[in-house]
Amino acid sequence: MGVSDLVYGAYERRLNAQLKDAFAAGRTPKHVGVILDGNRRWATAQGSSSSVGHAAGAAKIVDFLGWCDDADVEVVTLWLLSTDNLARPEPELEALLAIIEETVAGLVGQGRWRLHPVGALDLLPDHTARVLKEAQEATAGIDGSLVNVAVGYGGRREVVDAVRSLLNEHADQGTSLDELAQLLDVEHIADHLYTKGQPDPDLVIRTSGEQRLSGFLMWQSAHSEFYFCEAFWPDFRRVDFLRALRAFAERQRRFGV
Question: Count H helices, E strands: the chain?
Fold first, then answer.
């Protein structure tokens, strides 16, 4: 073990000690959303291809979910592929989708988490959409935390899909547009989002140093706390996660006030 490992271990123990009171007082997030950013830039810095970066990022996910379990996080949303990403060059997109499918299959094999796909599955290749649906079915009975796998996800598309679903539901019930306009409120939209029935995210983390949400959980994150980390996702460490939890615990949540 080198000096850097000893220093890292000591710092991690210090963070754990600082968080002990926060855990006891319940000042920890129950739903954490993560924008797994920086895979391609990590690969470029390594002199490797983008697929190597995506594979390295995928390998980090099991570790991260384990850290969330240790912190009693009940819901995790992982943004793996945006609707904008679907416009990437075909060879890169095919490689990325293959990595996502392999990653999802690996999470199913772990048998530790319930998986729930969120996104416009109709925009994905049939095989990818089927893998995601089958993962949800295979893990439905697992007594573990809920992991939302956001693939083909876009915040604006989610709101449009929610409104479309709401309109179709009321059309089937014979509700007129005038009647619906009088009834419509925030909860009606929330009940048709991809994450319906789930708590909104308490904490949203984005790696790679970018300080924007890019539409991630655009509706649900209205009262979330945000934490931006400089590390590329493949380099994201447990100590980085603990720092995010510490920052969350130190904030006075005002819920928009």
Answer: 9, 6
Task: List the domain range (segments joined by +) for residue 62.
Answer: 30-250
Burial of residue 256, with CB atoms counted within 10 A of its CB: 0-12 exposed, 13-18 middle, 19 or more buried: exposed
Q: Which two tokens stand for residue 129?
A: 């959409």
Reading the block at residue 106, the tokens are: 């690996």
Q: Is the pLDDT higher at 31 or at 3?
A: 31
Binned at pLDDT 50, 70 and 90, residue 254 comes out as confident
Please check whether residue 9 lies inside any domain of the structure.
no
DSSP 200: P
* pLDDT (0 to 100) of residue 3: 57
- CA neighbours within 13 Å on the CB side: how many for 77? 29
* Residue entry with tokens 């990437």: 88
Using the structure block, give the residue that is written with the tokens 């083909």: 152
Answer with the residue of higher pLDDT: 12 or 54. 54
Q: Which residues are CB-neighbours of 10 under 8 A, at least 6 positions away?
A: none
Helices marked H in 47-185: 50-70, 90-110, 126-139, 155-172, 177-183
**238 lies in a domain?**
yes
Cα gap 76→69, rounded to integer Å: 10
- 200 within some domain: yes
What digits encode the pLDDT tens for the residues 172-231? 999 888 888 888 889 999 999 999 999 999 999 999 999 999 999 999 999 999 999 999
Please give the positions annotated as active site.
37, 85
Tokens 């796998």 label which residue? 149
Q: Which residues, in sequence order, are CB contacts of 196 under 8 Å at separation 6+?
A: 190
Instruction: Determine, yes or no, domain membership for 1.
Output: no
Element (H, E) at 114: strand 114-118
